[in-house]
Write a structure and sequence with these properties.
The complex is a heterodimer of chains A (263) and B (106). Chain A has 263 residues and is mainly α. Chain A is built from eleven helices and seven strands. Chain A starts with 8 loop residues before the first helix and ends with a strand. Chain B has 106 residues and is mostly beta strands. In chain B, strands 2-8-7-4-5 form a five-stranded mixed sheet, with no helix packed on it. Chain B has a three-stranded antiparallel sheet with strand order 1-3-6, with no helix packed on it. Chain B is elongated, with a radius of gyration of 16 Å. The relative contact order of chain B is 0.32. Classes of the chains: A mainly alpha (263), B mainly beta (106).
């Protein structure tokens, strides 16, 4: 099922009414950093907070089954190497995207899982946004729930973060907007019927009521780019991981919420 | 097999009112949408949910195409005696799932 672009039609019209931008993209100070959770309605929060009502938990359970399922010629499962995810995966998602020295580039959690599949399990990579990859990612990320996002502050990571920042601040698309114009300069303001959040990737993969399913950060970025009338990046584009890394760095200190629920 | 989450207290006092929460994974395709090639997507929904307690039906819901994916149904009952609660979902394309949960009443 492809996401339907209908709801984004109003975005363009609403953007035209934004007040002239007084300040240009400045980082949000740590004290003002707020998860998207604080911008959503009471009912949606209640849904996220109750594990018995959060539909994302269904995917976490699916992911647990996949974690223990043998794959490839040797029948190796994730658990064969990593054991009990409760210990081995605790805090892992809070450190992703992370630099992979062997490949010389950053990888997000989905790509890391697929690298394990191709190198260790010797089986086919799961397609981006497939049900199984979303479920496995949700299961792994759920093990970090409540832990703060930690991105290392070294020269290597700094360089990558700056690449991501360049994408975030680049004006693009037919209405010539950048991510920063909404999420750094105008968060908290109305955009159509919704409040602009700060765009912190704390709860991915998350359950969006509009999607009626779980979705990855890739899908959210594609939605935003579509609303900006820009050409979305392909799923394996390096810009996506750069952007994801910058967003994680920008959200450092905020707690992981996977699986979050958003309207 | 659909993934199901059922939440109810494992133990209750006799006469206590307990809340039962159920969540099931299902696309609940309404039948009113079309695919990107213009072809209609056929309806695929859960049409009936029932819950019985010790063999007696205590709750029943008929579901319609307007209900969102992964239906969440919560309801209350009075804990009368120890036994099992049986939950049953059925719908289009021969969909049928049954789960049982035990409860101890003191």
């Amino acid at each position: 099922m492809m996401p339907l672009p209908g709801a984004l039609g109003g975005l363009v019209a609403a953007l035209a009414t934004l007040a002239p931008l007084a300040t240009l993209a400045a980082d949000i100070p740590a004290a003002e950093r707020r998860s998207g959770y604080e911008f959503i309605g009471r009912e949606t929060r209640a849904m996220q907070d109750d594990d018995a009502a959060n539909p994302g938990m269904l995917a976490v359970l699916d992911g647990e089954a996949l974690w223990n399922r043998g794959e490839g010629p040797a029948g190796k499962s994730c658990a064969s190497c990593h054991g009990d995810a409760r210990q081995s995966m605790s805090g892992v998602a809070a450190r992703y995207p992370a630099f992979d020295a062997a490949l010389g580039r950053p990888l997000d959690l989905e790509q890391r899982i697929n690298l394990c599949r191709s190198e260790r399990q010797q089986t086919a990579a799961l397609p981006f946004e497939s049900r199984d990859l979303l479920a496995l990612t949700a299961f792994v990320a759920h093990r970090s729930k409540g832990q703060p996002i930690v991105i290392p502050d070294d020269r290597q990571t700094r360089r990558l973060v700056e690449k991501g920042r360049a994408v975030f601040e680049r004006r693009q698309g037919q209405i010539n907007l950048s991510c920063a114009q909404c999420h750094d300069d105008n968060w908290g303001q109305q955009l159509g019927g919704a409040v602009i959040p700060q765009a912190h990737p704390t709860g991915y993969p998350l359950y969006r009521l509009e999607w009626q399913s779980l979705g990855a950060l890739r899908r959210r970025l594609r939605n935003c780019l579509f609303g900006m009338r820009a050409e979305p990046y392909p799923n394996d584009a390096p810009e996506i991981v750069d952007l994801e890394l910058y967003l994680a760095w920008r959200a450092r200190g905020l707690a992981i919420e996977t699986p979050a629920v958003r309207p | 097999m659909a993934r199901v989450l059922i939440n109810l207290p494992p133990k209750a006092k006799r006469g206590e009112v307990i809340e039962i929460k159920t969540l099931i994974s299902h696309p609940m395709e309404s039948g009113y949408r079309v695919a990107s090639n213009g072809a209609p997507i056929p309806r695929d929904i859960i049409t009936l949910f029932t819950c019985s307690y010790g063999g007696e039906e205590i709750f029943r819901a008929e579901l319609s195409p307007a209900i969102a994916a992964n239906p969440f149904i919560a309801f209350f009952t009075t804990a009368t005696e120890s036994g099992t609660l049986e939950f049953h979902w059925s719908g289009d394309n021969g969909f049928s799932t049954t789960e049982t949960v035990a409860i101890t009443v003191e």
